[in-house]
Amino acid sequence: MSDTATWQGRLTPEAEDEARSQDSTRSGGIVLRADGRQLLRELISPYRRRILGVLAIALAQVAATMAPPWLVGVAIDSSLPDAAHGSYGSLVGVGVALLTSALLSGWLRSVFVLRSGVIGQNILFDLRRRGFDHMQALSVSFHERFTSGRVISRLTSDVDTLTELLDSGLDGLLTAVFNSAAIAVVLLVLDLPLAAIALGSLVPVWLLYRWFAPRAAAAFTRTRESVATLIVSIVETLNGIRAVQAFRREKRNDAIFADLNDGYRDANHKTFLLQAWFIPGTALIGNIATVAVLLVGGYRVATGGLELGVLTSFLLYLRQFYDPMEDVGYFYNSLQSATAALQKIATVLAEDPEVAEATDPAPLAHPARGHVELRKVHFAYRADRPVLPELDLEIPAGQTVALVGATGAGKTTIAKLISRFYDPTAGTVALDGADLRDIADEDLRRAVVMITQDGFLFSGSVADNIGFGNLDATREEIVAAAAAVGAHEFISALPEGYDTDVRKRGGRLSAGQRQLVAFARAFLADPAVLILDEATSSLDVPTERAVQRALRTVLAHRTALIIAHRLSTVEIADRVLVLADGRIVEDGPPSALVAAGDGHFASLHASWRDSLV
Amino acid sequence: MIVTTPPHAGVEEAPSAFSTLWRLRTWARPHRRAMIVMLATATGAMLAQSFVPIVVGKVVDGPIRHHDTTGLWALCGLALLFGVAESALFFARRRAMARAALGVETDLRRDLFAHLQRLPVSFHDRWPSGQLLSRLTTDLSTLRRFIGMAAVFLVACTATIAVVLGLLISIQPWLGLVVLVSMVPLLIGTRRFELRYSQDARRAQDLTGDLATSVEESALGIRVVKAFGRRRHMLDAFTADATRLRAAELTKIRTLGRFWALLEALPQVVLALITAGGVYAAAHHTISIGGLVAFLALYLQLVWPIIMLGWLLALTQEAASASRRIFEVLDTAPSIVDPPAPVPAESGTTLVFEGVRFRYPDADSEVLRGIDLEIRAGETMALVGAVGSGKTTLTALVPRLYDVTGGRVLLGGVDVRDLPLDQLRHAVTTAFEEATLFSASVHENLTLGRAGIDDADVREAIEVAQAEFVYDLPYGIDTRIGEQGLSLSGGQRQRLALARAVLGRPRVLVLDDPLSALDVHTEAQVEQALRRVLATTTALVVAHRPSTVLLADRVALLDEGRIAAVGTHAELLARVPGYRTLLSQAAEPLQPTARAQVRA
Average pLDDT, whole number, for chain B? Predict the structure, then answer.
C-alpha cells in the first residue's frame, strides 16, 4: 500500500453508511429480506398458473430422464437372460422405451426452456417498466439525494444481473434440484439400505455448505466492491486524461491502480479458493458414497441379496444425484448478486414520492393567468438548516421578476418551489389562487415551465428536442419557436437542419447551442409562468444579447422568474428581488433600486457597470 | 473535442484466433508453472473419473460373479483411490487456476492501464471511455475464463474423449464405433448453436445498451421531464424499447430451446442403441456382462466432454476477439513521447507560437492556421475569440497534450517537443475549464501525486484560488470529494482546478476561462488573489468576459484560426470592431453571430 494508502481521503460515517446501505449487501446471502420477498411475490403473481404449468413440464421431463437408468437395469436383469434364450421381445420393448423417453425428454426440455424463458422475460419486462415509471414518479429531491448514477444502475446493471442469472442456466439448476429429489425417491424405492447410504452422505454435504455459504457471501460481496472501485478509477482516469497528463499523474496512478488491481485479484482469489474447497469437496463426498454403495451393493449382489441390475441403475442414478450440490458452488455468486440486485430495486420501489400527485385535483383554467403567491413559506433541505425561514411573495400575472443574491441565498429554492420540484415544509405556494398541491400535475406542467442551466437534451433530432415542449406541435410551430429565441440560424446551418441528430446528451452542440434549444423547447410549451434558472450562463455575449432581445417580446404577456449571476440579464426585469439568507432584503423596479443608491443591488450594479467598457 | 467513432477492427483480415491468443504468452510466462499444474491436474482428474466405471465393471465380472467378497474390498479400495484422486486433482486444479488465470489477468490489466495513460489525448478523443473500460474489465474477464477454463479443458477434454473412446472400442469395437459416429452430429450441432446464439446474444446486448441509454437520459434529464410533465411520454418510449429487448431475448431462448432438445435427446438415443446392441452382444457372449455395465457407464462419461468441447471452442473464439480488442490498444504506440535527444530545460519562460497550425486527426480542416504570438516572460496574455475559434486547442499545445501539425511552440527559446516531457509539464500547468475532480481527498486532488509539494504550498494555492471552503469540509483537506465522495458546486470545483494549477508555482500558467462558474462576488475575490500570482508568472488566459480580460497585460484576438489582433484591452476596443462585438456589453444593433459551431 505504501504512500498511496491515504489518497482516497475520508468520508463522513453517515456518507459511508449511506453508500453502503444503498450499494452493497454486507448481510447478503441468497435469502431475500421482507420487501424483496414482497416484490418477488408481486412480480410472480400474474404468472402463477403459467409457472405451475412449467413446473409440471419440468417434472414430466425429469421423469423422462429418470427412465433410462431404470430401463438399462431392466435390460440387464430381464432382457439379457431372455435374449440369451433367443427371445428378443423384451429387448425390443426396452429399446423402444429408451428411444421414446429420449425423444420425449428432448421435446419436453425445449418446451420447458421456452416457456420458462417467456415467463422470466415477462417478469423482467414488468420489473423494468415498473422501476422506470416509479423512478419518474419520485420527486426531484429523491433524485438529488440518490444521485442519477444510482438511479441508472438500479434500472440497468441491477436488472441485467437478474437477466444474467436467467441466462446462466437457473432453469438448469432448478431441473437439477428436481432431478435430485426425484432420484432420492427412486433410490428409496429401489433399495432402502443403499438409499440410506446415498442420502446419509447429504449430511456432510450440508455441513460443508454451512461452512461455505457465509464465507462465499462475504467474499463475493468483496469482489463486487473491489471491481466497483477499480471501475471508478478507470473511468475517472480516462475522462480526466487531460488533467492526468498535464499534471504528470501517470506514475502515481500506476501505483494506485496496482493496489486496486491487486485488491481485486485478492478478492477473486479468495472466492476461487472457497470454490476450490466446496466443489471438489462435494465431489469427494459423492465419490466416497458411490464407493460405499458399490461395496455394500456388490457384497449383497455377491451374496445374493440384490439384483445386479438394481445395483447398476443405482450407480447410474448416483452420478446425477450430486450435480445440483456442486452447481450451488458455481451459481452462488449469480444467486447472491441477483438477490442483492432485487433487494436494492425493492428498496427503491418502496420509496414514496415526496411530492405526491394531487388526489382530488382542483380545476385550473387553461390558459392559466399566471398569478403566483408564496404565503408564509418555510423550506429546509435539512431540518436544522432552513433555507427559507418564512417567505411571503406575490408575483402578479404578467410580471417579470429577477432574483439576485449570493450563492445559497435561496434563489434556486424559490424556483424549485414554484415549479413544484419540491413542496414547502410549511406554508403555501399558490398559482391563480390554488395551492400547487391541489393542482393536477398535467395542468401544473402546462402552466409552469422551468429552464435550468444544464439545458438537458435527449438523443434524437433537434426538432424532437424542441418538440418535447409540446408533443402536438407541427414543424412550423417548432421552427417558429426556434426563430423566436434566435436559434433558427444555427439550426439551419447544421448538416441536416432540424433533423440533425444531436447525439448523446446533445454532444454535437456547444453548451450555448444546447441552452438555445432548451429555450426554444420552453417557448414552444407556451406556459403562463416561465422560470429561468441560470439559463443563459453558457451563451457568449453577443448570443446572450440576442436572447435578451427575444426575451423582451416572449416574456411580455407571461409571468417570469429569472435567476442570473450576470446582471445583464436582470435589466429586462420589471422588478428585482434581492435575497439574503432566505429573506427578501430589497424589492422594487431595477431603476428605482439603482436610483436609491445605497442598497445591495445598487452596489452590485455599480461594480458590474465598472467591469463593462 | 472531435467526436468520431473509434476505429473498428476487422477492416483488414483479422489474424487467426490462435496467433492472437499465442501473443498472450508474454503475460502467461511468469505463471507457466501454475499453468502446467492446471493442465496436468485437469487431465488427471478427468481420467481418474473415467476409470471408476472400469473398476465397477471389474467388480461385476470378478467378485460379484465369483461371490468373492474379499476381492470386492481390493477393487472398492481402488475405486475409492480413483475417487479421492479425482477430488484432490480437482482441488489442485482450481488452486492453480486461481493463481495462473488471475495472475495473467491482473498483469495484463496493469500494463493496459499504464499504456492507456500514456496514449495521447487525441487517442482518447476518438475512443469513448466506455469502449476502453470494457476492454479493461469485460474483455479481461473473458481472457481469465479462457486461461482458467478453455485453454486447459480443450486439452483435457480432447484427451479424455480420446482415451474413453479408445476404452469403449477396446471393450466392444462395433458399439465403440456407434458412439464415435454419434459424436459427429453432436459436435456439429453444438458449433452451429454457438454461432447462432452469439448472433442472438449480440442483438440482445445492443438492445440492452439502447435501453440503458433511455434510462440514463430519463435519470439525467429528470428535471426536464418533470418540468414538462412528460412521464407518460417517457414511459411509452421506454416500453417500446423494453418490448424490443424482450423479443430479442426470446429469440435467444428459442435457439437455446432447440439446442437443449438436441443435447437431451441425442445422447439418450445413442444410449438406447448401445443398450440394445450391448444386450444383444452379451446374449451372444461377444461382451461380458461386466463389460456391458462398464461400457454403458463409460459412455455416459463421454457425453459431457463432447458438449463441453463445443462450448470451449466458442469460448476460444470469444477470447480471441477479446484479446484482439486488447492488442488493438496495446499496439497503438504513444505518439507524444520524450524526444530522442532531449534539450535540458532552460529557465527562460518566454512562450512563442511560431506559424502554429493544428488539425484534429480525421477532421477536414485546420482549427489553427498559422498562429504567430509571443508572450514575454512574466507577461499575462488573454486569449479571446468566438466559441469554437480554437482557444482551448491552442492552450493544449503548450504542455503537449496535442502536438502541432505545423509550425512550433517555443518555451524559453526551445521547441517544446525537444524538452523532456516531464520537465515541460512541470514547468507548464493548466486550469481546465471543465474542472475534473477525482474520487480522492482534497489534498490528493490538488497535488495529484506530484512530488516536492509541501503543506505550505497547498495552503497558498488554496488561498490564491479562494478555496478556503475546503477547510470547512468534515475532515478538511482530507475529506474525500468527487463522484464517490462529497459533491461540490460548479464554482467550488472550478476554484479547486485553479488551485491545482497554481500549486507548485509553475513557470507558465495556462488558464482556460478559470472564473466562468463563479458568482460576481467570488469572482472579484479570486481575481484579486490571482493578480499576485500572475505578476510573477508567464500566463495564457482564455477569457469570455471583460472582467477576466482585465487580468491580462495584453489581449490576443483569435479569429478563423489566426491571431487577428494583439494589444491592450483598451486598444483593441478602440480599433477592432470584431473585438468590440465579442466583449462589449453596450447594446448594439444585432449581428448574425451565431455561426454554426458544429463539432465535426
Answer: 85
Cell of B474: 468534515
**Residues composing chain A:** 613
Give pLDDT, residue A7. Answer: 79
Interface test with B, best of A248, A318, A323, A519 (most B CBs within 10 A): A248
How sure is the predictor about B1, in pLDDT bands with cuts at 50, 70 and 90? very low
Amino acid code (one letter) for A282: T
Pairing of β A529-533 and β A448-451: parallel
CA atoms within 13 A on the CB side of A152: 18
User: What cell numbers appear for B363 in the block?
Assistant: 477532421
Region of A509 (left: φ > 0; alpha: ψ -120 to 50; beta: rest) is beta
Mean of pLDDT values over A142-153: 79
Instruction: For chain B, give percent helix, strand, coil, nearest 5.
Output: 65, 10, 25
Under DSSP, the state recorded for B452 is S
- Side chain identity at residue A577, one-letter code: L
Give the residue, B301 or A585, on which the prediction is more confident.
A585
Q: Is B530 exposed, middle or buried (0-12, 13-18, 19+ CB in 10 A)?
A: buried
Record: contact B79-A232, CB cut-off 8 A: no
Of A109, A279, A545, the CB nearest to B264: A109
CA B289/CA B284 separation, integer angstroms: 11
Q: Positive or negative, the Cα torsion across B261, B267, B268, B269? A: positive
Can you tell me the distance from the alpha carbon of A270 to that of A221, in angstroms, rounded to the nearest whole number? Answer: 11
What is the reported pTM?
Answer: 0.79
Question: Residue A591's CB: how many other CB atoms inside 10 A?
Answer: 10
Q: CA nearest A227 in B: which residue?
A: B137
Task: Name A401's bridge partners.
Answer: A561, A575
Contact B540, B398 (CB under 8 A): yes
**Within 13 A of A603's CA, how many CA atoms are on the CB side?**
7
**Residue B441's beta-bridge partner residues?**
B480
Strand B351-358 versus strand B406-411 pairing type: antiparallel
Q: At what angle do helices A148-155 and B173-220 cross, to 10 degrees?
A: 150
- Check A110 against B243: CB less than 8 A apart: no
Q: How far is CA A163 from the centre of its chain?
A: 13
Query: Cα–Cα distance between A52 and A114 in angstroms, integer?
Result: 15
Q: Is the pLDDT of residue B80 over 60?
A: yes
Rg (alpha carbons) of chain A, rounded to whole number: 35
Which of A16-30, A534-548, B50-64, B71-85 is modeled with the greatest confidence? Answer: B71-85
Which of A111, A156, A266, A549 has the most B C-beta neighbours within 10 Å, making it the best mutation to test the interface with B? A156
Instruction: For residue A171, count other CB atoms closer than 10 A to its CB.
Output: 21
- Rounded Cα distance between A287 and A318, Å, is 9
Cβ B239–A129 below 8 Å, yes or no? yes
Lay out the sheet containing A426-431: strands in order across: A385-395, A372-382, A426-431, A434-435
Cell numbers 446528451: residue = A505
Residue found under cell 499504464: B114
Grid coordinates given for B233: 411520454
List CB contacts (< 8 A) between A249 and chain B.
Answer: 448-450
- Strand-strand pairing, A575-580 and A583-588: antiparallel
Rg, chain B, Cα only: 35
Q: Which three cell numbers stand for residue A473?
A: 406541435
- Return the exposure string of B4-40: e unless at least 16 CB atoms fall within 10 Å of the residue's CB, then b: eeeeeeeeeeeeebeebbebbeebbeebeebbebbbb
CB contact under 8 A, B547 and A117: no
Cα–Cα dist B184/B123, whole Å: 47
Residue carrying the nine cell digits 444383444: B280
Contacts of A293 in chain B (CB under 8 A): none
**From the list B73, B250, B387, which residue is nearest A117 (CB)?**
B250
Band (B588; pLDDT cuts 50, 70, 90): very low
At B198, phi and psi to the nearest 5? -70, -30
